[in-house]
Amino acid sequence: MGFNCGIVGLPNVGKSTLFNALTETAAAAAANYPFCTIEPNVGRVPVPDPRLDVLAKLGKSQKIVSTVLEFVDIAGLVRGASKGEGLGNQFLANIREVDAIVHVLRCFESTDVTHVEGSIDPIRDAETVETELMLADLDSLERRVQADQKRARGGEKEAKERLAIAERVLEALRAGRPARTVQVSADERKTFRGLQLLTSKPVLYVANVEEASAATGNAVSARVEIMAKTQGAAAVVISAAIEAEVAQLDPEERKVFLADLGLEEAGLARVIRAGHKLLDLITFFTVGPKEAHAWTVRNGAKAPEAAGAIHTDFEHGFIRAETIACDDFVASGGEQGAKDAGKMRVEGADYVLKDGDVLYFRFNV
Other CB atoms closer than 10 Å to residue 220's CB: what's the count? Predict the structure, then answer.
C-alpha cells in the first residue's frame, strides 16, 4: 500500500513548491496568487531506503522496486472555507480522501510573496486551518447525529455504536479540540474511521523557512516545533525553494549542493521518515533474482495482510511465510547463508510483521 498525504495550508505558503520538489516535477503551478492550484495534483514518489539496495545486491536482483508515497497538492484554504468561501468545498472534499495531512506553514519573510493575512505568523495560520476543519466536522457530525438518533430509537445497533462515539467527538469539537484528541478503543476504531472526520487525520507540520535557515531553522520555525510537540504531532523544517532546486540536480550534484548548505540529506527524506512514523507504517521486503521489492503495511499487520499487499490471491491462499530479518539476511550474505545459519523462520497466519522482514510467501490459489 502507499502513503497518502494531502499537502494543505493557506495560499502562498509554499505548498505547490514543496509538491514540485517532492515529485521532482513542475506539474503544480507555483505562482504568487491564491488558488493557482485548482485541481488537486497527485504525485507518486519512491521511498528511498538504503536497505533495499543492499538486499538487491545480495540477491543479485535485476530490478529494484521501492515502495511508493502519494502526495496530493490541495488548493489553498482561506477563512470561511467551512462555509464554502474561496475553494472551501473543494478543499474539504479533497482532504477527506487522504490518510494524513502535511500542513505547510510559512516561516519566512519576503516582499516578493504576499501573505493573505498580511503578516507572518504560522501559529495563527495553523489555527485558521484547524478551525475551518473543526467547523466542517462539527457541521457534518451534528447532521449525522440527528439521523442516527432516529435510527437508534428504532433499535439499530450500528447507529447506537456511532452515537456513542459521535457524542464524545462533538464534545471535543465544541470545546475547540480536534477529533484526533478523542480516545477510542480498539473495538471502536473502525466505527470512528467511518465517521470520515477531517480533524481525525494525523498531522505533520512542515515549517517552510528561507534558504539561510534550511539547516538550523529560525525563531519562527522553532515556535512551530513547540506547537507540534504540545499537540503530540510531528514537525519538519525545510526550505521548499531549496528542495525545488535540489530536485533538478543529479545525485552527485545534490550531495555537493546540500553539503554547501550544511545539510546531510534532502528534505524529502525527512518528510518521508516523519510521514511513516505519523501513519505508523513499516516496510518489508521480497528479494529474488528478478527483483528486490519494498512493500509498506501498517504496523501490527499480520503475515496474510502483508501477502495481500503483493496480491490478493496471496492473502486468500496464504499457507505460511518464510521470514528472515533484514540484518540477518545481510550478515549471512543472502538467503542461502541465512538458511544455513538457521536464521530463516517459518511463520503462520498469526505472525505480526516486524520492520525490515524479508519474506517468502507460500500460498495455494
Answer: 21
For the residues 8-26, what does the mean pLDDT come to?
A: 79
Say how far apart CA 328 and CA 337 lie, in whole Å.
Answer: 9
Contact 228, 237 (CB under 8 A): no
- Quick one: which of 16, 18, 127, 12 has its CA closest to 79? 127
> Hey, how many other C-beta atoms are within 10 angstroms of the C-beta on 3?
21
Q: Quick one: which H or E segment has residue 44?
A: strand 41-46
CB 180 within 8 A of CB 201: yes
User: Grid coordinates standing for 311?
Assistant: 496480491
**What is the model's pLDDT at position 90?**
66
> Of 269, 244, 207, 243, which is closest to residue 13 (Cα–Cα)?
207
Cα 347 to the center of its chain, rounded Å:
29
* 84 pLDDT more than 90: no
Among the ranges given (28-37, 152-161, 164-173), the one the predictor scored with the smallest mean pLDDT: 28-37
Is the CB of residue 23 less than 8 Å from the CB of residue 15? no
| 8 Å CB contact between 77 and 9 | yes
Which of the 8 DSSP states describes residue 290? Answer: S
Q: Which residue has the cell 502526495?
A: 71
Dihedral sign for Cα 20, 26, 30, 35, please.
negative
Other Cβ atoms closer than 10 A to 337: 16
